[in-house]
Amino acid sequence: MRRTKINAKGQITIPAELRERFGIEKGSRIKWKEERGRLVLTPMTERFIHECRGILKPAPGEPSAFDELSAERERERKREDLKYALLAGLQGEKIEIPVAEIRKKGLVAALRKRTRRR
To answer: Which segments of 8-98 does DSSP mark as H helices, in order?
Structure first.
């Protein structure tokens, strides 16, 4: 275990042996995070970035993270549409929204507009 002192400016010196082992050079970016009461330092070197490349790549036949997020957003949008439709219906309001308005603004925006007019 190595020890280092913090100087008056709050800076530390990483021992040369560790800088060489992890490829930390002048100007290298370092990521800090707290983990269970400890500070964890991760050098953002080319080697680290190269090792991380492809980590989110889906297995064959699985959806990508982007596709999964997009699908989740679509499910969320449908839940919102249903929620506003139910709210408008529970208030005894007859819902008549022209198809053109729904296509132009979306169902949620059209329902919000209708419920605000009161």
So the answer is: 16-22, 46-52, 65-90
Please name the helix (run of DSSP H) or strand (run of DSSP E) that holds residue 57, with its range, or none. none
1-55 domain in CATH 2.10.260.10? yes
Residues 6+ apart with CB under 8 A from 58: 64, 65
Task: Flag whether pLDDT at 24 surpasses 90.
Answer: no
Q: How many whole angstroms separate alpha carbon 62 and alpha carbon 81? A: 28
pLDDT 10s digits, 87-109? 766 565 666 666 666 655 566 56
Residues 43 and 66: their CA atoms lie apart, in Å, by 27
Reported pTM: 0.39
Domains of the chain by residue range? 1-55, 65-116
